[in-house]
């Protein structure tokens, strides 16, 4: 009897928690969307019943999200009935053209976003390498009619991201893929022109054939759809809700088809008048633009009215970076860091990062972040050569190229200075006292102290603003040339893409080959005789 009573009470409580809105489940820790999949569709849903937590604590918002989930689920049922799959089949005709145009625009928009933040030496160089790799892959695919691994990945990623099912062995897929890569080749050429300083306009969003533009949708409706798919953090949700509220207070509750560029400019101007910082205004305008772009990508409106809305910022001319000459290098390596054991009090700069990272940069040409992220396990040995296994997986790295992942033999001068002994004393990270910034950038404090902080400039004895940490990379390249190291070898050491199709043939230089080349590297006139092995953390 007790068991029956307990079961009854449990069932009653659960039913009571189910909202009147079908599929809305309320629990102590929040709201859930719950749905049992009809038997005839079970084969298409690996996790049944569906039970997903809703990212809201508001009952009305939860109901709206559940309604959206039901609509999306029924669209999938209809697709299964019509095609036998939850996913859309490979696109053809106008649908394929539209999808390819979206991809081209997306690539140029991504480049816009990178450049709007300002491009430093490292990013500029990585962009150039990325364009070279893309161009080589696209040329091979177009010339031979066979997709390269990189091209296959790009096509598959775009199709999967837009909900398409495909078989890479079919003729339909190959036809679409080659057409896609030809369009990407055009985008690569445009990006290379931007890299040369030419103005290249990002195209407007293409109109979808048989567009399902819906004049009844508001920004809030679009936000609900976006929220359902992206599942952002709570802070992002709160920020975007604020943007929508302020926008609607200024312009009224417009449907998205009535929103114009003027409405976005009005929002931007009001935030500037309110005294908000440049970064804040830019982020909020970007949030609204992202929502409207989501509406474009899903064919609710033909183009993004926020396109081209810019926030004025004073331009600062950036001088080209120069290499350190021998006098500069002797000054740096005779500074208090190397002669008196000086370590700044700045957060994250204690320990031996300031001692070893410049030396490693001098003898590898590696980027600051590539060095700072090194782990003990990244220092390896093959035969008689110790080497750095640089994977370019730093948290702050947002652009990665295949060439950046490389193996760099450790120069004998570093070994003489006791670097391998230092490595043995570390448990995981080589520089455990480096602390990421609030934005997750590992080398932010180091970079700021070395390149911009007045105390840092005085300490290392370098005042010329054209000489930055990146200058080590330039110095290394010059030293390689002056030491008679072939270009393809020092390109491999620094992670640059070598020109020419032939560079991609074979496995490339072995560790032994690179080690022999590294053994030739010298800096004529450089004096490091006063340096001693540093074994502390």
CATH architecture of the largest domain: Orthogonal Bundle
Number of strands: 6
Average pLDDT number:
80
The CATH class of the largest domain is: Mainly Alpha
Structural class: mainly alpha
Give the CATH topology of the largest domain. Answer: hpI Integrase, Chain A
3D shape: globular
Describe the structure.
The termini are far apart. The protein folds into 4 domains: 2-83, no CATH class; 93-195, no CATH class; 219-297, DNA polymerase, domain 1 (Orthogonal Bundle), CATH 1.10.150; 326-518, Orthogonal Bundle (hpI Integrase, Chain A), CATH 1.10.443.10. By secondary structure, the protein is mainly α. The strands form 2 sheets. It has a 3-stranded antiparallel beta sheet, with helices on one face. The chain has a 3-stranded antiparallel beta sheet with strand order 4-5-6. The chain is built from 21 helices and 6 strands. Helices cover 51% and strands 5% of the residues.
